[in-house]
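Quick question, first post here. What does this chain look like in 3D?
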Amino acid sequence: MISVEGLKVEFGVKPLFVDVSFVVNDRDRIALVGKNGAGKSTMLKILSGLQQPTDGIVSIPNDTTIGYLPQVMKLQDDTTVREETRKAFSDNMRMKARLEKMQQEMADRTDYDSDEYIALVERFTQEHERYMMLGGENYEAEIERTLTGLGFTRDDFERPTKEFSGGWRMRIELAKILLRKPDVLLLDEPTNHLDIESIQWLEQFLAQSASAVVLVSHDRAFINNVTNRTLEITCGHVEDYKVKYDEYLVLRKERREQQLRAYENQQKEIADTKAFIERFRYQATKAVQVQQRIRQLEKIVPIEVDEVDNKVMHLKFPPCLRSGDYPVICDEVGKSYGDHLVFEHVTLTIKRGEKVAFVGKNGAGKSTLVKCIMGEIPFTGKLKIGHNVQIGYFAQNQAQLLDDTLSVYDTIDQVATGDMRLKINNLLGAFMFGGEVSDKKVKVLSGGERSRLAMIKLLLAPVNLLILDEPTNHLDLPSKDVLKEAIKAFDGTAIIVSHDREFLDGLVDKVFEFADGKVIEHLGGIYDYLRVHHADTIQQAVDGQIEEKVPENKVTAEKVGKPSYLELKELQKKINKMERSVKESEKRITAMEKRIKELDSLLMDAKNASNMELVTEYTSVKQKIDEENERWFMFSESLSELKNNV
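> Answer (accepted):
Ran it through. Tokens below.
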């Protein structure tokens, strides 16, 4: 599908890529990995055609379509969410206009037996079939499904895009790309602005998609669930592993050990050769051997080993005062903005030393409760901050409070104390500020770089209650490992608002779920919470959302007893009703498919080629089949979920 041969890219003295070759095949699911600055985003730009290589060939067939989601893009602010997303179907709309024009031309003309008229009918039939294959008139339903999957509510569809944050507008762009159904999807950090439910929806979408996928992501669980092949950019070339990311890590470790042994052997050979040359350079009897060794030395191709793997950064929080036993106590806390209820009756206690996660859809109130804890906004009820609590708070706007006139190094040098002052360069390197980047002024940093720098400042502050709001959005995998290790070793209390399951796994021992104006406490780690969540929730069905009612502020990880006789009887009624709906839907589909075959036979007859009634009926029946297939799928999904609860 895409063939890369002999790729070379030069920005400075040292090339970014040299002699890189690989192929992206149909339905490949590729994770593009490598240290920061290795050229992952540059590679995606080259594959998308937005950037040209210095040398080499990137071959893409003419009929291959590519969808590219960059980390940052220019966004439109002059439409509603629905109107902006509808732009994904601009080709459908143009095709529909051409069909209507041809249809009108066939109605106006009377030369039914002419070659031109027959050619027009054939062209109309082919174009119409292609139009129906691309979804025809069903794109509105696809728009709604995709936007809902990415976290938008139906109330959001008609809101202007300018009312949404940059992260939500990036979701709109992602929706447009997915709806175009390109042959190849190039995704650069697609999960940065998604919550857990939206990430899981995207995983399922990509698993069912016919497109090839090449993605860059720092969400380890996401790339493990989506990809089956890993391309590593290292030392200016690409290593191709035909395995998932976790398996790649094992193979990479083995390859690196082999590299190190080969590197050490080569260094010994070079040292021995140089020693021989120096020892016998001026002895006439050894002149021939010396010249042979010099030529031998010149022919040696140095083995490179990626430096980043040689460094392991361990970060420890500075000592701080011991807080009271209960750093945060909420009693019937509520928050509303006018008529909009964010949450109510929130009663929870966070003990000293606990690491807890706040999870839920965007807009469910996670950051709002954090602001209540910080005392930044008014609320109802009682909220008590414990004795001796010193809060360290990381939010997206923290990055805007940095001093623009300082360099990256000086920003950290001002807050580092003790032994950490001797390790500033290592710390900056672990968070992607190594080398010359540490001399950059804060004012020239991107939003992501400023966020990472604010995170480092927080990690050096003596606090005993950490509150981190989406801390991993702009961190790569090694940096996230550094942060995770530091929080695990932290003696104080931590509240983490995050959608990153891999980051939260093994880090938190309690999860607070924000949903429908309530906050529900779940004991256990993030995957314990997800298992309970899936077991206890039934997806949207035609007869409405069916949920198990959970008492407020009760632990949902408790074992649920078997359904009673009456409950089973009621459940069986729903199953029987849904089975009838499935069978009736299948009968309707069979009847319509039979009619389509009849219409195909009629339209193949030349005397019916201009019969607009048949053409109109054919279009109408095809559309109804698509709609009925969608209903059948929803009925089947609901039936499967109901049976799982028996």
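The domain at 328-390+462-536 is CATH 3.40.50.300 (Rossmann fold).
The first helix runs from residue 40 to 48.
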